[in-house]
């Protein structure tokens, strides 16, 4: 009977141990599957929130960048148009003043020289009459021709020097203005990029820390909930082994929870530090590339602007010189013809009326030459003023169109560069987040499986030890 009792108790104990192991194994597997599902859902939800927040942040940054670049470009265009308009008006006023002063000075000199020459000719005409008159007329024609040619050459030289000087000043002022505007554009874009990168780093750091804190809290609550459920099921299943099993499981659970919290905290901090370092390096690299491309674009635009303005100025100067040369030659030819005809007519009248006729002719000659000179000077001033205004208006239009075209190209290039950088940033951040989530899932899965295996081993050893003690106690009681 004792042997049968021992066999039945042994079989009963082994059956209970096998059932206990099976139930604990099923419970552990079910808990592991639930833990993996909850962690997978939590990770996917966090990844989706991270992608949405990064997408919204990137779109908001792109919209702000486009607005600030558009406002900056419009402000630069308005300033460039105002400065060019003021420069052109100032140049036109200076050109008109210089031409007016030059014309008045030439007219005064011409009147004085003609008055002196006429008085001298009258005194000689009175003495030598017909022969002297013919000789004086020839000399008058020669000196007037030489005087006119000399005055025209001086006028051409002064206008050429004035035009070249004004063109050089215009090129220098436009070059300085363009370089100053490019330097201001580079500074504001550098400051804007650095400010946006700092805001992006701060927002991503806060978002990462908030996500890590939420992950730690959710994992801590999940672990505590699982430990509490495990304690309840083990308490109900093994009421016979309540005291020893509760003590061992409580100590083991606390130790495992503390290890899990420490490992997760270290893992989260390490991941956050790696994320911050990678984002900082990525942002700095993007900022350096943006500064380089903007610097190259600005230098290229400045060089093109200087070349186009230099070519335009040279072309305008050459046209101005040609038009003035043609105008001066035409005026000289008309002056020579009119003076030749007038001189011949005067000679015929001088021969007829001698002294009195000579004086009357000299007075008429002075008046006609004065009126002719004034009329020619006024026509020259009007033609030069109209030519200058027309050239200045064409210069303003060409420079305005060039500036607007360059600003539109700059806006398009900067918009494309910003969108490309934002897309690369979103892709890199998405890949980094997915890689971190996959590593987190793998580490948590391995940690959970390791904890479950240790729990099963400890429970199996504890159950076998308790069964062996039960068999020994039953053997002693049976004997």
Summary tags:
single chain; 479 residues; mainly alpha; 2 helices; PA_immunity-related
Secondary-structure topology with pairs:
Elements: H1 2-237, H2 242-478
Helix pairs in contact: 1-2
Region (Disordered): 1-35, 431-479
Biased composition (Polar residues): 1-13, 470-479
InterPro entries: PA_immunity-related (IPR052949)
Can you walk me through this structure?
With 479 residues, the protein is mainly α. The protein has one domain (67-408). 99% of the residues lie in helices and 0% in strands. It is built from 2 helices and no strands. It has helices at 2-237, 242-478. 16% of the residues are buried. Residues 1-13, 470-479 have a biased composition (Polar residues). Residues 1-35, 431-479 are annotated as: Disordered.
How would you summarize this macromolecular structure in one to three sentences?
The chain has 479 residues and is mainly alpha-helical.
Quickly give the structural class: mainly alpha
Number of helices: 2
Mean pLDDT figure: 68
Proportion of residues in β-strands: under 5%
Helix content: over 70%
Uncertain runs are none
The rounded distance between the terminal residues' Cα atoms is 11 Å
Instruction: Please state the CA-atom Rg, rounded to the nearest Å.
Output: 51 Å
Order of helices and strands: HH
The number of distinct β-strands equals 0
Sheet of most strands: none
Return the domain count: 1
């Amino acid at each position: 009977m004792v042997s049968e009792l021992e066999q039945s108790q042994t079989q009963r104990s082994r059956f209970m141990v096998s059932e206990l192991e099976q139930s604990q194994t099923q419970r552990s597997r079910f808990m592991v599957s639930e833990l993996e599902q909850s962690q997978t859902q939590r990770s996917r939800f966090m990844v989706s929130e991270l992608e949405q927040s990064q997408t919204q942040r990137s779109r908001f940054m792109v919209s702000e960048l486009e607005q600030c670049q558009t406002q900056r470009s419009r402000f630069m265009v308005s300033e460039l148009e105002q400065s060019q308009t003021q420069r052109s008006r100032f140049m036109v006023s200076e050109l008109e003043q210089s031409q007016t002063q030059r014309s008045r000075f030439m007219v005064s000199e011409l009147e004085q020289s003609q008055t002196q020459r006429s008085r001298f000719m009258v005194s000689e005409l009175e003495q030598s009459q017909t022969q002297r008159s013919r000789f004086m007329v020839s000399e008058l024609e020669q000196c007037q021709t030489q005087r006119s040619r000399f005055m025209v050459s001086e006028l051409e030289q002064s206008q050429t020097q004035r035009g070249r000087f004004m063109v050089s000043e215009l090129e220098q002022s436009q070059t300085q203005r363009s370089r100053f505007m490019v330097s201001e554009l580079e500074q504001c874009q550098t400051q804007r990029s650095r400010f946006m990168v700092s805001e992006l780093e701060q927002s991503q750091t806060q978002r990462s820390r908030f996500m890590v804190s939420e992950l730690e809290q959710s994992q801590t609550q999940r672990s505590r909930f699982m430990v509490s459920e495990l304690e309840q099921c083990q308490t109900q299943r093994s009421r016979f082994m309540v005291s020893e099993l509760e003590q061992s499981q409580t100590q083991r659970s606390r130790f495992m929870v503390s290890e899990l919290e420490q490992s997760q905290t270290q893992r989260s901090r390490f991941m956050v530090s790696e994320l911050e370092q990678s984002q900082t390096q990525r942002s700095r690299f993007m900022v350096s590339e943006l500064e380089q491309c903007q610097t190259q674009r600005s230098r290229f635009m400045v060089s093109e602007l200087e070349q186009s303005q230099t070519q335009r100025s040279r072309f305008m100067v050459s046209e101005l010189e040609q038009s003035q040369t043609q105008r001066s030659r035409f005026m000289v030819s008309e002056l020579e013809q009119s003076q030749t005809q007038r001189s011949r007519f005067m000679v015929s009248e001088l021969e007829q009326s001698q002294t009195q006729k000579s004086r009357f002719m000299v007075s008429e000659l002075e008046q006609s030459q004065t009126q002719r000179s004034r009329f020619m000077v006024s026509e020259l001033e009007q033609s030069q003023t109209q030519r200058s205004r027309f050239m200045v208006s064409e210069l303003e239009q060409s420079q305005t169109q060039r500036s607007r075209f360059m600003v539109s190209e700059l806006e398009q290039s900067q918009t494309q560069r910003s969108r490309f950088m934002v897309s690369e940033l979103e892709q890199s951040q998405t890949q980094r987040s997915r890689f971190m989530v996959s590593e987190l899932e793998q580490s948590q899965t391995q940690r959970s499986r390791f904890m479950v295996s240790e729990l099963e081993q400890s429970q199996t050893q504890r159950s076998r030890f308790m069964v062996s003690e039960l068999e020994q106690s039953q053997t002693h009681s049976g004997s």
